[in-house]
Amino acid sequence: MLRGEHVMARLARGRLVPHRLSPEDGRVVEVAGELCGVYAAHRQAPRAGLEARLAALEEELGPRLDARRGFKIVRALAKLLEESATWEAPTEADPYTIRTRVFELAAALPEPPAGEPGLLEAPTREDVLGRVASEIGFGDVADLMYADRQGAQLLAGFEGPSPEALIERYNVAQVQGVLYAARELVVDLDRGADARLVFHYVKKMALIYRLEPTPRGYRLYLDGPLSIFGGTRKYGLRLAKFLPGLLLTSPWRLSANVEWKGRDALLDLDSEKNDLKSHYLGPKDAQEGDDVRGAFVRAWERAKDTGGWELGFGAGVLTFPELKTALVPDFTLTNAAGEEVHLEILGFWSERNLVERVALLREARARGHRVLVAASGKLGASREALSEAVAGGVIPFKERLAAKDVLAALDGERSLAEAGA
Amino acid sequence: MIELFYESGTLVATGASSGLPEPFVWDGRTRQWRAPAGAYREVVLKLRESGAPHADRAASFEKVSLESRLAMEPRPYQREALAAWGREGLRGVVVLPTGAGKTAVAVSAMERTGRSTLVVVPTLALLKQWYSVLSNAFGGSVTVGLLGGGYHEITPVTVTTYDSAYIHAERYGDRFAFVVYDEVHHLPAPKNAIIPKMLLAPYSLGLTATPERPDGGHESLPELAGPVVYRRSPEDLAGTYLAPFELVRMPIELTAQERFDYAQAEAVYRDFLEKHRLPMRSPEDWQRFIMVASTSHSGGREALLAARRRREIREGAMRKGVTLEALLRQHWEDRCIVFTKSVEEVYALSRRFLIPGITYETPAKERKEILDRFREGRYRAIIASDVLNEGVDVPDANVAIILAGSASQREYVQRLGRILRPKHDKQAVLYELVTAATGEEAASRRRRESFRKAPA
Which CATH topology does A285-420 take? Predict the structure, then answer.
């Protein structure tokens, strides 16, 4: 993420165009590569030196990219690289103890410690430093006095991105930077987009959503609790952090209402018309989830008797505004009688996930939705949590979810639904 | 029955049989009645008045035993301020000049409310200063918490910055019954104005020497922190409570090499001003120069660098160091604070003279220790960067040396306020080391003129 001062965007007829670097531009790749190289070469060297070198590079490399704003681009790239760095203390000595001792000794002298020895043999600065050195057994006391300052830290590790990846990070970060000043984000999700993933990030960033169906899918309005009392930029940072999550799926279009330098402006983005790449890894369950869902589809197809139920892909989003979340079923089961039951399969989960799911099931049933949730006992966290969840209506399974388990649950669910009705 | 809950900086009401009146609004997104958390006081008073059955599940305030251990001799105007604040329902702004002991008013107000308190301050330096004062005052019964500047420890008495409160208040806004806004003139800034909305705190106290804002934002202060309940100007308190002092200005000549470098940088800078017809008479002119230079295609960057270089020469003049050494020697038996603008200079001078330095980097606990030792006389002198600017509490200092000042009048007056703490039979001395034949002279003259207008 960039700081506000690094963010650059052009305003054209009310629309914001965030600054972008082309990964095809040789000069850009060269500059990015040089910066990565400077970082890598500074391992085990002090931070102050690295920062001075980077400041000098603003002057050297900046003009190659842009005569006027080049230095700012270089500064922003360096900021993004800093996120991949770890730092360590340069010494085992405790600088605080050392300087405190120095100050005490100096203050006890009858006059200020002299810079150089004189004829009067007054106590000198060297006398004080030498005495502390012999007490603590470290040499360069004057250097060690403030060795705990940030600038003295050594670059311990640097897992830097490739120059190309750095440029991608930069382009996403500039769009995020514009979103810092956003009051609201409107996302049009097409049906093909992974709504579950999107809601994962809505919840993670503690945003509040409003959902409207559209001919192509859903329109999602995102802001925060205080937003109803008048637009606020307070949630801009969270909207910015939400963006890379959204970038993991497509197709969608987003539009953000931004307060840009005291004026209202719009940011528009279309997943099909940009090359932004997310650096988020996605929720933990994505891969496992795909595996268990695929396995279930094959199991269902092999099953001899499915009790008249047809398996189809999830039929949309069930919203739970009060719980600030939504349920995005993987599958929807239908039969000739027109009954409809949604099924969600959790591949990887934490205890908290599961507790939330049980609450969601209860709420869904109270509202007349018929929902089944299946959770893998193998991938989960604890047996106790799973058995509590099963009591709450979750279908447990080991390696693969079998068709018969779902059919059995469908029967149980029907009696529940009838009892509820 | 109506139940109130605190949720991320807002107040949510459930169980209402019909619609709820203002300040509640229906939130269609989550299907709840919602109000800003700041409306808590109004909401609860209304509910009590109407006799409607309700349960308050929002507030998790704590009663804390806050009895100050500090012997603070309350001056009559501090007592008056506190009484006026009490009459307004423990909510309002107190305006007192720097050096008049605003912190003492806040400490007494905290004793009086005896509830969990959040103190909001503009800078990390003040964060550390308040930590130190509140630890001294209440350290026996509570641990003082810090939020901001790398600290994230919430306790019933917590100090935070406006920036951190903006981000985190929605998480802790239900825990504090009382909020103190130091330098409350920062509160009406667009970003900060949302902070009171996120806090339930029914009681608030704003402190400042100058509530007025050039943008007119002070008009929203009554809504944000309460009305001005008490006000005294420096004129009201001069003589009796603010000690007189002697101002000594020491011109510093540049060395031959410094003069040469300075002239070069000056030429580049002046050329640019002339070319773009930029006047340079006020801080606004400086802002305009920065803007023009950083967007100019030709020579802008060079002009910026020259301006910086020019400033560095002026502020780092070699003779300044030697003069400082002489002054330290002369005042070794006094309590002396050295002020400088540059953080790096603090560390360089601290290493050179072996006296403790304080900057925004100094950890809160160490800062407190240094100031305590300075107070006790174990340290004779300290050197500080801008961090000791707004309202720091450094009693017993009777000598101050300004190494590099800027032209801000307000800053100057506040710095003076610092060493103007009352002290028996002690004439305070303020030295200002100004580089001769440079802009710094003019800045110094400007400040003294503005100062003369105020009675000493």
Answer: Trna Endonuclease; Chain: A, domain 1 (3.40.1350)
